[in-house]
Amino acid sequence: MGENLDGDQAFRSTQLAGRDREMTWGGANSFLRRNYTRNLDEADIVVTGIPFDMATSNRPGARFGPRGIRAASTGLAELDAYPFGFDPFDTLRVADYGDCYLDFGRVDEMPARIEAHADEIIASNTMMMSLGGDHYITYPLLKAHFKKFGKLSLIHFDAHCDTWDDDEDRIDHGSMFLRALREGLIDPATSVQIGIRTHNSDTHGFTILGAPWVHREGIPAVLDVVREVVGTNKAYLTFDIDCIDPAFAPGTGTPVSGGLTTAQALEAIRGLGEFDIVGMDVVEVAPSYDVSEITALAAATIAHDFICVQAVKAGAVKQPYGRE
């Protein structure tokens, strides 16, 4: 344990690895109680909030998503991760970078601010994990990742395809992936959209796994398709929480019935370890519409389990726990 750092580790800890005791009901709400810092010299993964919801088409409130996800993550920081059976922070050094600062009176400047914020983190050669915010934030994040990694495959969990046409000037969370495609940021031929259950007359070359197909075929079949389509390409993972059915994730701006269960979503995330994912986000959590934090908890667990997957890739030994 080292020196006594019980409580408020987010501010008091002097290192990014390991963990100390916290009250689940109190203390500083960094993501998974990680150290708040902008010194990234030793970080493997950097978590940051993007509290932006000016592109939402229905219910606003995703600007409070990062705060809600952080608060819901506190219980996940207490025990060894299930089903992995290890403390991921014994293997990975994870920092909470705080939030991207956005001036509410200058909406037109926000996309550039988000991109510049991502540039700072990516320049440190760490993996960036972003907590949204509405789904538009993925567009400036892709622009930043493209500068370092080139054209990316997209692994996209969502109820919506987000490839509807626009005038290419709108700040809109329903059209940004078509713009990313047209700008050469992503390759639709090596990208997959999972859980879709809204209609678009044009697939734009994406492989689309609709929610009914996922329910019939199961998550192992989903991973087979991702393996076939994405392969060894560098990929960006984006998870819109409305991919999960509103029975399990009501706290979002554009809920659509018939989605994945939380269990299916987590099984899918835990199966992505073989892919070369260079960055990820979890978006569209709107706590005002949540019930007992179940949406925020789902989002926090998705991000937590993705970290665990990266820990396995970095050499953490997975300990079996019953029949998984």
Brief write-up:
With about 325 residues, this protein is an alpha/beta fold. It is about 30% helix and about 15% strand.
CATH superfamily of the domain at 31-148 and 233-313: Ureohydrolase domain
Q: What is the share of helical residues?
A: 25-40%
Number of helices: 9
The mean pLDDT is 93
Structural key phrases:
single chain; 324 residues; alpha/beta; Arginase, Chain A; eight-stranded parallel beta sheet
Q: How would you characterize the overall build of this protein?
A:
- It is globular, with a radius of gyration of 18 Å.
- Helix 3 packs parallel to helix 4, helix 7 packs across helix 8 and helix 8 (262-270) runs parallel beside helix 9.
- The chain has helices at residues 9-12, 65-72, 110-122, 138-149, 176-182, 211-217, 219-229, 262-270, 294-313; strands at 45-50, 94-99, 127-132, 153-157, 192-196, 207-210, 234-240, 276-283.
- The protein has an 8-stranded parallel β-sheet with strand order 2-1-3-8-7-4-5-6, sandwiched between helices.
- Strand 4 (153-157), helix 5 and strand 5 (192-196) form a beta-alpha-beta unit.
- It has 324 residues and is of the alpha/beta class.
- It contains 9 helices and 8 strands.
- The protein has a domain at 31-148 and 233-313: Ureohydrolase domain (Arginase, Chain A, 3-Layer(aba) Sandwich), CATH 3.40.800.
- The model has no long low-confidence stretch (mean pLDDT 93).
